[in-house]
Design brief:
single chain; 403 residues; alpha+beta; DNA polymerase, domain 1; Dna Ligase, domain 1; five-stranded mixed β-sheet; five-stranded antiparallel β-sheet; DNA polymerase IV; EC 2.7.7.7; DNA-directed DNA polymerase
Length: 403
Amino acid sequence: MEKTILHLDMDTFFVSVERLLDSRLIGKPVLIGGVTDRGVVAACSYEARAYGVHSAMPMKRAKELCPDAIQIRGNSATYTNYSEDVTNIIKETVPLYEKSSIDEFYADLTGLDKFFNSYLMASELRQRITRETGLPISFGLSKNKTISKIATGEAKPNNQIKVDLGYEMPFIAPLSISKIPMVGEKTQQTLYSLGVKQIRTIQEMPMELMEKVLGKNGVSIWKKAQALDNSPVMPYNERKSISTERTFDRDTIDVIKLKGILLAMAENLAFQLRRGQKLTSCVTVKVRYSDFNTYTLQSRIPYTSADHVLIAKVLELFNKLYHKRLLVRLIGVRFSHLVEGSYQINLFEDIEEQLNLYHAMDKMRDKYGDRVVMRAAGMEARTISRFNPFTGEPPPLLPNRRR
């Protein structure tokens, strides 16, 4: 039985939320992100995109391209709340869904055509989301994730497309290679230099040639161009978490040491989130005293994987939880309610230099080990145990190098 996969994507999600809150923004070019010249564009409206503006662009450059654009700092907590509203509607409607980011979803509707018309069901779901939240949304429906995602991109803004079985390759053939998931700017330029601009050309190329040019990535891109994608819809599970604990050889009351270790824990776990393209919306701090009494305190936050946001929240929770003059036996940090997401840091407030710094630090950690670069305040924590959020197995205490 061929699968039936639905891909849903909110249209310019952040901008759409802002327009719900202020109708005067409708039809105008809007930039969301850092409001200073050193800020970065987190999202932009279609009107701004017409001037060449795109996300992750320096705000100064965006304003040069579109001087009449309205700048808004944005509120990640508000966007998270609207995302949860949409998630709840999808959860009530489909049997199996995957939340791949704050504004993007997959659903497996395989076999439902025996009882319902899957396209009609998807259409009704889209209409319900718009009716109950006021937000525009588009979808693509096909036999796999790749084709459905491409179809959604073609359907935008605020529309829907079904790609009938057997018509997948003709549907994507005339499209730009940039439409294929995994084809970034660098890969696109490499293929352009070879005269490969349309997906049709990749469809006609032997797989071995793509492998020779781009390695394993070339094989994956070739398969997607052939409409081959067996990746399953992964059930969304809010209970996934990643955590770390430290038990002391000797109970301690050294607050500076405790905070330094907590800082290092939060920093390291934030890197693990970014490396796994994950975001967290729940932070928990755990303290066990010498009498073995254990206390935890948690807080819900907007989805993030930013060091400075998570470190600040961890230290805030510890300050509320810690009872002075009591010896501490164990401390721990846990990030939960994980979702897939590439919003690696808070684009609404951070500046371009901070984005570049995170990127550089993550590259060093990825190459030489996750403890090769750290904040000075966290130097006390030389070993940090982590639990894999997917397998539950604790990895080695020593830094891993990506194989």
